[in-house]
Amino acid sequence: MIKFFRQTRYDLMNKNKTGKYLKYAIGETILVVVGILIALQINNWNENKKNRQQELIILENILQDLENDKIGLNKIIERRISKVASAEIMISYYEGVKIDKLSDYYSHWTNVLYWEAHYPRNIAFKELVNSGNVSIIKNADIRNTLLDITASYEELFAVREHMYDDYGIYLYSPYSEIIDYGDGIKVWSNPNIKIELSEKDIAVALKSKAIKNGFTLASFNNVGLQEQLIQILNNVDLTIVWIKKEIEQ
């Protein structure tokens, strides 16, 4: 094609047809520019298609992580609710409520002291953040909510770390010198188990203001964590809906 254009220009010049030559040259230039623009457009289209395919793969992976995270969030929320209930019962014992069965005291304090933590399964989005390529997710709602979820988890981790320190000071340390942990674990794991429990140890524990304060803090902090977890779960549910819609487009 280029050889044809060159030969045409040469023929026009030899025949002194300057006007036609200029018109032809301008037309040829326009054709070349149009050809370049079309080539760029095709290249951009191919690049956008490639990026979209990559985005969809990433969204699929993030969706899978979020759905797994949702399962873990529901479980830990249930456990936080259970711990708050047990902590409130333990506080009532320290405020004079009668203990009907020794196993109730052992079971509830073990339920509160048993340390449980949920860690999000956010592998795909974490890798995306570390690569600095978050902008590949074009939907701003999805992108911003994922960032909000990450920030919420960081805040939750800070609260949880503080709560663990409180557990060590007000519960783990005082109890370790008073009550047999093994008995508590046995009763908590199997409420129907028949073992001899120490009424004397419980009486000593009930005199500890540190332990009472520990259960007060445990109730307060578990309520706070529960609220944070519910907010994260709501954002996870919302993001799952948005990602599914984005994938279906």
UniProtKB/TrEMBL annotation:
The lineage's top-level taxon is Bacteria
State if Coiled coil is listed as a keyword: yes
Q: Which keywords does the record carry?
A: Coiled coil, Membrane, Transmembrane, Transmembrane helix
- Pfam families named among the record's database cross-references: DUF6090 (PF19578)
Q: Which residues form a coiled coil?
A: 42-69
Q: Where are the transmembrane segments?
A: 21-42
Q: What is this protein called?
A: Uncharacterized protein
